[in-house]
Amino acid sequence: xxxxxxxxxxxxxxxxxxxxxxxxxxxxxxxxxxxxxxxxxxxxxxxxxxxxxxxxxxxxxxxxxxxxxxxxxxxxxxxxxxxxxxxxxxxxxxxxxxxxxxxxxxxxxxxxxxxxxxxxxxxxxxxxxxxxxxxxxxxxxxxxxxxxxxxxxxxxxxxxxxxxxxxxxxxxxxxxxxxxxxxxxxxxxxxxxxxxxxxxxxxxxxxxxxxxxxxxxxxxxxxxxxxxxxxxxxxxxxxxxxxxxxxxxxxxxxxxxxxxxxxxxxxxxxxxxxxxxxxxxxxxxxxxxxxxxxxxxxxxxxxxxxxxxxxxxxxxxxxxxxxxxxxxxxxxxxxxx
Length: 337
Known about the structure:
337 residues, alpha/beta, 16 strands, 20% strand, globular
């Protein structure tokens, strides 16, 4: 077992696990689960048969990477793509939306709008921004609203806009601008209240007829069922849910409750491939990190293929791709003794 770090940006590391078995290699991703040192330490503990806090976010994410790699190995051993091994159908080219949140540069309304315009020029018909993440020279609700307005003006009326609140604003601060946000016709309002905040979700439901999305940190189907009827879009994350089958369980619980599914994926090519395969079982539009690293496609073999807002899955068995350990951005962080 080996852990690789891909140095993406000051904000982002992709943490990728390699598992070799009987001449085959499986991959998993545990990005955003903790620091590289914390992830390596947890892997070392698991290799010794120890886990000091098995229900923690760190452990769930690291175990999820191991489970991804095991599923990848099993599908490769069977000689079939992961979607088929999971009992799904060929998803074909997977529709993706451009998450603008990690593009280098400023966060003034005009700068965010320029990024959105660039995503549309690159072929995306859907964009997501996090307008309340970065403070500025005016109140955060007003500045966030200005960012969304600027993006809508930049991309025109036909491009879908998703708004991710990241639970940054108390609902008392968000409520005064909800009507103006609704007038800009967002496709959804994400994490204005967390999936576990049922009173907050009910309050949002009562305020404005906005489509609500969330669930990126859900790790149990019960959380999804409890929010039934309160979320229009549920967003399992293959990393943080605990792996491929755990994310699929969350997705099925959401679909059974009448919600749409859109896999949460601010991730590298490995988790992106797994999430794309999952859309062959539970269909939905997939998140894609836009503009963070222009060298991104070449860090995987075969190179990631994205064109006109569609992600084309590789043809091989399992997830269908391998991390290139010789890429200059890739370093080995830890390996099992």
